[in-house]
Amino acid sequence: MKPSKRKVISRSPSHTVRLIHLPHVQPDPVEADSNPERLFIHIAALYPFIHKITDQPFSLELGAKRYTPDFLLEFKDGSRLVVEVKPESRMKEYEELFAQAAKKLNAHGYEFLVAKDVDITRDELATRALRIRRYCKTRFNQQACKRALRIVEASKRGVTMRELMQTHRISQEVVLHLIGYHQLCTNNNLSIDERAIVKSAKKLKQEIANEYQSHAIHFGSWFDTQERS
Question: The pTM is what?
Fold first, then answer.
């Protein structure tokens, strides 16, 4: 693996590159070369155990080709996941390249994931992520936040969003703020409707330890890239 020499930033008027700031995750912004990449960053930033997101982290030599992945995700348990964001319409032409990349990366201790544009936008996943991320910029009463955490942590199976709002009189905005700051979480597709089960990040960490080898492997299930019928 070699440091990436490819530069994302371009002055072309037809090419817009965005800097995504994630102050609750890391001090450095992440560059997005396309709208699907931008949306993926917002989704990945909500994974409870994300530690760092790096754009175009390095280059791989794959035979006569050189491949630069879109992102490297580093997690709190030390595991690492390389992510390629691609339109589903172009998957066929990159199939062999991605298989080679996955094999080489696995040999170096990295997991590999292809996040297709349809995975990112399915069932309004990206829309929910953007809504949750808005509340990372908002300050809430600390007593209300602590109370919400106590209620959720006291439940073995989690508490529905409806119960938190109607029974315990905790606003949904407070819950979304705590999700954005990785203290609470819901299920794999970031569900935030009234039926969503809200649990503590501590509880999810225990579940991952029992069922998965690492955060990097669990992220694939959390993001849920499996094709649907």
Answer: 0.90
